[in-house]
Design brief:
6-stranded parallel beta sheet, alpha/beta, 12 helices, 368 residues, two-stranded parallel ribbon, 2 domains, 9% strand, 43% helix
């Protein structure tokens, strides 16, 4: 994986590292939480970085590849789940609203079944993006998106983030789309140059025959793709509109200075493609969890990422990142409000060699 360019001076990160040294605890005793704070400090250029305001954004789309029997649910369930988000019944809606009190937006970037949003009692805002009648393709036999559709989906993701008010310090990204583990598997296998079986999992619960069918579909897609190496071209040809929108979203997050709390396999596949295209985007990523999808671990390894949680999740929707948000907020609050040795009148407990400058790579979760 290409290395990110060297960082410019970051006084906020230096100050945060120095403050961390002075807090009333043994250095390193909060483990991964200490690194999370340094990640946030680097992104925000702040001695006391904040986790709020924060927002959750989900991109929803259908995938023509489901016609090959690779999912246990019909494609129409994607539309039903968009309505479920709006009603507050989906896991991500419950977590965003009732657990964390965060705004949740759902951006429809390619849901092919018609649906109506209830006029009252909405838990999530739903935005519909329509791309002048441009249709997605079946990635097994044709490009998933035309160049025009790909650019439109990326732009929809970018606009979804730059239009957030208030601008978030932490952005939680999620996805929803029946069958979208298939394009994520194809994208990941192509980017890493690995065989399909290393990335194709059980998804929402397919059986053994379904697993073999999934692998064959991805093998066919990779054979059609050929030797393409450009990461965004790979997303265009074997990805999906939701994955393209996620690429635009992380680009925009960098633009507005927000940390991205990364969810599971599908989101991470999009992040990896985006980072291969623009290595500096890696600096804005904090990885919430390791999912139970086999390809997710390989992507995390490729990105030198050690996620905060490992709970065997494979729901998507941003649910794992939302679970990790509480830890991110906890880490930021401890760093901000814990007393220093001086404030606690324990000045003699540490020496005078507090670090004046943070050194070493920032690796989301904890340092490698």
């Amino acid at each position: 994986m290409p290395q990110a360019p060297s960082r410019p001076a970051n006084p906020g990160l230096d100050a945060a590292a120095a403050r961390q040294f002075q807090l009333t605890k043994p250095l390193g005793s909060l483990g991964a939480l200490e690194q999370v704070v340094l990640d946030l400090a680097s992104i925000q250029n702040a001695e006391r970085p904040m986790a709020r305001p924060a927002a959750a954004v989900i991109f929803a789309a259908d995938h023509p590849v489901v016609r090959h029997g690779v999912a246990i649910y019909p494609a129409s369930v994607t539309a039903g789940m968009v309505v479920n988000f709006a009603r507050g019944g989906a896991a991500a809606a419950v977590a965003a609203d009732w657990v964390h009190g965060l705004p949740l937006q759902v951006h429809d970037v390619g849901v092919d079944t018609a649906y109506d949003i209830p006029p009252n009692g909405s838990s999530a805002e739903v935005f519909r993006h329509r791309f002048n009648g441009l249709a997605a393709g079946d990635l097994r036999v044709e490009d998933a998106m035309s160049p025009e559709l790909f650019e439109a989906a990326v732009e929809a993701g970018r606009l979804a983030v730059v239009n957030l008010e208030p601008r978030p310090k932490v952005l939680i990204l999620g996805e929803m789309g029946i069958g979208n583990a298939m394009p994520a598997s194809a994208v990941s296998a192509a980017l890493l140059g690995r065989p399909a079986e290393e990335f194709v999992g059980l998804g929402a619960g397919v059986d053994g025959e379904g697993l073999r069918r999934r692998q064959q579909v991805i093998d066919d897609a990779l054979a059609r793709l050929g030797s393409t190496e450009d990461p965004l071209e790979i997303v265009r040809r074997v990805g999906g509109r939701d994955i393209a929108a996620l690429v635009g979203a992380v680009q925009a997050a960098r633009e507005i200075g927000a940390a991205v709390l990364v969810d599971g396999f599908v989101v991470t596949a999009a992040m990896y493609a985006a980072v291969l295209n623009e290595p500096e985007l890696r600096e804005n990523l904090i990885f919430g969890h390791r999912s139970d999808e086999p390809g997710h671990a390989r992507l995390l390894e490729a990105m030198h990422a050690r996620p905060l949680l490992e709970l065997g999740l494979r729901l998507g929707e941003g649910s794992g990142a939302l679970a990790a948000f509480g830890l991110v907020e906890y880490a930021a609050r401890l760093h901000s409000d814990m007393a220093t040795f001086s404030e606690a009148e324990l000045d003699g407990a540490i020496g005078d060699d507090a670090p004046s400058q943070h050194s070493g790579p920032i690796v989301s979760g904890i340092r490698d």
